[in-house]
Amino acid sequence: MLSQQLVNGLVLGSTYALFALGFTLIFGVLRVINLTYGFYFSVGAFVALWLARSFGASIWIALPLGSLAAGLVAVVVDGVLLTRLRRTKAGELPSLMVTLGAVLALYSLMAALIGTDIQRFPFGFVGSTALEFAGIRVSLVQMLIVGTAFVLVAVLFLLLQHTRLGLMIRALAENEDAARLMGINVDATVVAVSFLSGLLGGAAGVLIGLNFNAIQPFMGEAMMLRGFAVIIIGGLGDIRGALVAGILLGVLEVLTAGYLSSNAKEAVGFTILVLTLWFRPVGLFGRAQVKRA
């Protein structure tokens, strides 16, 4: 049924959008391609899983704590790997190479400590309640995923547009040197951006783990590919674009799997990505930069 497939696509797309928001925040503000972002996704899911298994924590406790843990890990990892590159203005390629090596090492370390077997949340971690109307079934998990994603998006937008920290982040995104001259604590703002991006990635990890009830160390790898597609389709560094492109990709993947083939859905993101680069290289919401001599 088309309406049910659209609901499922909205749920999946919400997690894609949430994941891509943190990714696009890093690129849009710090101008670095941080491949360790996929690791923060896995950290959030595993911290929530550990809290649920070891302490019987509910989703209302495990989700925020898993997200916070991912944010703190992001601050440490980004500080160690990227601080020197940022201060020397090394550019995007060095950050790409450094974080590529780091994420491989981090994934391997996590796999050695936890194992590579798929793990699942305890039974009853989230209730099995579901609502049905007009032939559409929406589970409590699905409502939680969509609701959390949209709440975090709204909070992030309000933070960026209506707080002093948001003003500092936007100033840093425009020009780091000018922001520093205006008295902005650039180092503290970079830490805040790393924390926020890690928090969003960790929340997405918990929600994806809930959606598929399958958690393993390398779960962030596949999401990184979709994250790249989403931020390019939506427009590099644009939050609105990440939200719209994430939901669009999720809906199209679900429709493709439901009406064509589950194997074909993997090609959807790549196809849309190529079409975007052909016909609108700046993305749906991106703006072409004017270069003057």
From TrEMBL:
Which UniProt keywords are given for this protein, alphabetically ordered? Amino-acid transport, Cell inner membrane, Cell membrane, Membrane, Transmembrane, Transmembrane helix, Transport
InterPro entries from the UniProt entry: ABC_transp_permease (IPR001851), BCAA_transport_permease (IPR052157)
Topology of the protein relative to the lipid bilayer? Multi-pass membrane protein
Q: Which GO terms describe its cellular component?
A: plasma membrane
* Residue runs in coiled coils: none
Where, per UniProt, does this protein localize? Answer: Cell membrane
So where does this one cross the membrane?
A: 6-30, 37-53, 59-81, 93-114, 134-160, 190-212, 267-286
An example Gene Ontology molecular-function term: L-leucine transmembrane transporter activity
Q: Extract one GO BP annotation from the record.
A: L-isoleucine import across plasma membrane
Q: Membrane as a keyword?
A: yes
Major location, coarse class?
A: membrane
Instruction: Tell me which Pfam families the record gives.
Output: BPD_transp_2 (PF02653)
Q: Which family does it belong to?
A: Belongs to the binding-protein-dependent transport system permease family. LivHM subfamily.
UniProt protein name: Branched-chain amino acid ABC transporter permease
